[in-house]
Specification:
4-stranded parallel β-sheet, 6 strands, two-stranded antiparallel ribbon, 213 residues, alpha/beta, disordered N terminus, elongated, Rossmann fold
Length: 213
């Protein structure tokens, strides 16, 4: 990839923060490629109401500081990846809001990885994002750092009904177990309306079919 020359004492990417009250524009934008953005953000649907306030705020703050911002959505993600690969576009920092790291060849994950490979810096590095999309890994990291998590039972995919039954029985029979409010079942990978199931009772015959889904 070819980029225009960068200052010898600084490494790519260089994000310039400009005082909004200052009239000086020195060093606010550096064109490493013919099309360079200080900050890029990926979002599948640019009109999604859940992100509209944050997105507009981010655009506004970038404008105030003289920073170039690009939103990469579903209709342009493949083209953007190709432009980065051939050196026509570069990103200083990248905020990933959509990647499905557990899916092979997922385009937004490929975008974040490509930006990193070509010198940019994703806010969350791809290898950590890929690791922690698995909720079991997230749970382990939180526990290791003495951060509060609900008492949980982690089950690997593909376990036999007998093994699942034994593990659940052992989990429910532990000392000081109280389940008046029921249990929450969360798949290791997944989100949105498909991710969490509230099981109101801790009856074994109700748990087994839910876990096996």
């Amino acid at each position: 990839m070819e980029h225009s020359a960068t200052p010898s004492d600084e490494s790519f990417p260089r994000l310039y923060l400009k005082d909004a009250d200052s009239e000086s524009m020195d060093g606010c934008i550096v064109n490493y490629a013919s099309e360079h953005y200080d900050l890029t953000m990926s979002l599948k649907d640019p009109l999604h109401p859940s992100f509209s306030v944050f997105l507009e705020s981010l655009k506004r703050e970038c404008t105030k500081r003289g920073l170039r911002f690009l939103l990469v959505h579903e209709a342009m993600v493949a083209e953007t990846i190709e432009k980065i690969r051939i050196g026509k576009l570069s990103s200083g920092f990248h905020l990933d809001f959509f990647s499905l790291w557990h899916e092979a060849n997922e385009p937004f994950a490929k975008l974040a990885q490509t930006i990193q490979d070509c010198g940019g810096k994703p806010i969350n590095s791809p290898h950590r994002s890929r690791l922690f999309t698995d909720k079991a890994a997230s749970h382990s990291e939180l526990t290791k750092n003495n951060l509060g998590v609900p008492r949980s039972l982690i089950l690997r995919p593909g376990l036999s009904e007998k093994t699942i039954r034994q593990m659940i029985v052992g989990f429910l029979s532990k000392k000081n177990s109280t389940w008046e409010g029921g249990l929450f079942l969360k798949k290791g990978n997944g989100f949105g309306n498909k991710g969490v199931t509230h099981i109101k009772t801790a009856v074994l015959e109700e748990l087994i079919p839910q876990v096996q889904k």
